[in-house]
């Protein structure tokens, strides 16, 4: 009977931890990336489905955008210093990884849909990196994406359109077929980000092009749109 009670108690504790806001990593029971120096996060799983609009005006979903390893950052284009610096840092990490034969997509999700139109995002994305996917949407769509990634933002009160937006500054690494893997802080360097991502990709045992047909179709559409705009 003692063993039976012990087993029931262990099961109850396991269920409690699974349903609580305990420390979680990847939302998974096993940590197969332990050797890659991943950060831990508090709360529930990071990431989830979203429907947004990219810089070409196309309505896209998370499956299209995140079908390759991706660095996801929430910010806004009118940000005076933090967002451009963080995105430029992410772009540098992407270039390092490209030299190592690893493709990673830099993704920028605006938390300022009032000002960040697709046209504004297009200008911003082209200044950051040619592979940048920049996303906006309705206030409801942006809020849903932000909540899925457990990010914070708040528009400061202002009497004009030159307002600032307080927001969290983590960059999230998403791996196709796995989802959230790790996050990077502002003090992380491009080299540190590239090294950790390289470890995750090499140890993932999953394809780095999870939804190849969807990604190919989406990238081809983006390429055609960009060609039409520059033709």
Write the layout of secondary structure elements.
Layout (H helix, E strand, L loop, with lengths): L1 H18 L3 E2 L16 E2 L8 E4 L4 E3 H4 L4 E6 L6 H18 L5 E6 L7 H11 L4 E4 L2 H10 L4 E3 L9 E3 L3 E5 L3 E6 L5 H14 L8 H19 L1
Parallel strand pairs: 5-6, 6-7
Antiparallel strand pairs: 1-2, 3-4, 3-7, 5-10, 8-9, 10-11
Describe the structure in your own words.
A 7-stranded mixed β-sheet has the order 4-3-7-6-5-10-11. Strands 1-2 form a two-stranded antiparallel ribbon. It has helices spanning 2-19, 62-65, 82-99, 118-128, 139-148, 190-203, 212-230; strands spanning 23-24, 41-42, 51-54, 59-61, 70-75, 105-110, 133-136, 153-155, 165-167, 171-175, 179-184. The chain is built from 7 helices and 11 strands. The radius of gyration is 19 Å and the shape is globular. A hairpin with a 4-residue loop joins β3 and β4 (59-61). With 231 residues, the protein is of the alpha+beta class.
**Uncertain runs with pLDDT below 50, 5 residues or more?**
1-30, 206-218
Query: Portion of residues in helices?
Result: 40-55%
Order of helices and strands: HEEEEHEHEHEHEEEEHH
Q: Please state roughly what percent of the residues sit in beta strands, choosing from under 5%, 5-15%, 15-25%, 25-35%, 35-45% or over 45%.
A: 15-25%
Strand order of the largest sheet: 4-3-7-6-5-10-11
**Structural category:** alpha+beta
How far the N terminus sits from the C terminus, by CA atoms, comes to 78 Å
User: Major beta sheet, specifics?
Assistant: 7 strands, mixed
- Cα radius of gyration in angstroms: 19 Å
* Count of runs of 4 or more consecutive helical residues: 7
Shape: globular
Q: Please state the average pLDDT score.
A: 80
- Total strands: the figure is 11
């Amino acid at each position: 009977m003692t063993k039976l009670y012990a087993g029931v108690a262990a099961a109850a504790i396991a269920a409690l931890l699974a349903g609580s806001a305990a420390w979680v990593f990847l939302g998974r029971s096993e940590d197969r990336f332990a050797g890659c120096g991943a950060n831990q996060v508090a709360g529930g799983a990071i990431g989830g489905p979203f429907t947004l609009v990219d810089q070409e005006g196309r309505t896209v979903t998370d499956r299209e955008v995140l079908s390759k390893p991706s660095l996801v950052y929430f910010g806004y284009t009118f940000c005076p210093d933090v967002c451009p610096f963080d995105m430029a840092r992410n772009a540098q990490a992407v270039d390092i990884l490209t030299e190592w034969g690893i493709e990673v997509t830099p993704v920028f999700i605006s938390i300022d849909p009032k000002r960040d139109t697709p046209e504004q995002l297009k200008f911003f994305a082209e200044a950051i990196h040619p592979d940048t996917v920049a996303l906006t949407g309705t206030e409801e769509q942006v809020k849903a994406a932000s909540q899925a990634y457990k990010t914070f933002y708040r528009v400061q009160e202002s009497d004009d359109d030159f307002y600032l937006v307080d927001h969290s500054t983590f960059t999230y690494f998403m791996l196709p077929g796995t989802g959230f893997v790790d996050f990077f802080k502002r003090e992380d360097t491009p080299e540190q980000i590239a090294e950790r991502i390289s470890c995750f990709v090499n140890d993932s045992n999953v394809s780095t092009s999870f939804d190849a047909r969807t990604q190919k179709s989406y990238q081809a559409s983006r390429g055609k749109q960009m060609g039409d705009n520059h033709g």
